[in-house]
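Per reviewer request, we include the raw input and output of the structure prediction for the construct analysed in the revised manuscript.
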Amino acid sequence: MTEIKTPTPREAFELLMDGNQRFVRGATEHPNQDAARRTEVAPSQQPFAVLFGCSDSRLAAEIIFDRGLGDLFVVRTAGHVAGTEVLGSIEFGVSVLDAPLVVVLGHDSCGAVAAACSALENGQTPGGFVRDVVERVTPSVLAARAAGRETAEEILAEHIEHTVDLLLERSRVLAERVAAGRLGVVGLSYRLVDGSAQLVASRGLDAAVPTVT
């Protein structure tokens, strides 16, 4: 397998967003999805991004970012809640596979966020381990409301940014790579209807973050 130069965090981010723009336009290229690519990456992998997203069935990373085999190292949980297994998986993608970008991907109409909002309003939480998911999302909802951010889109943006900060607070590996300019960590909010991913949080990139309205 021919060694590929690792992109910078910004180059990796632009590569990812270019694919999303193709998806939105309906002009997908389906790169790296053929038999030749399968053979190429069989011996080893060199993904350009670690994508930590919600498990929602409508959030298939390789589809919405128009990528293929070996491009993305994907970790997914309901509501993109982060436990030790998630942190370990993300650190593996960064420290072992040398991915220059970590993406936290949330989306509108997220069931976990809606359940956390509902639990705060009526005092009832789901049973089983779903309760744990809701409890991990609840701090984001409380923080958003304390800041006067009440709409569903604002609460989602708060939860995405909270997750970005949580990863950097809990993982020395990620924080040190961001400080050294070797890693970017961004938060994207995905819109189910039009398929677009909007930047809502950025650490280690020089792009300005647009205000969520």
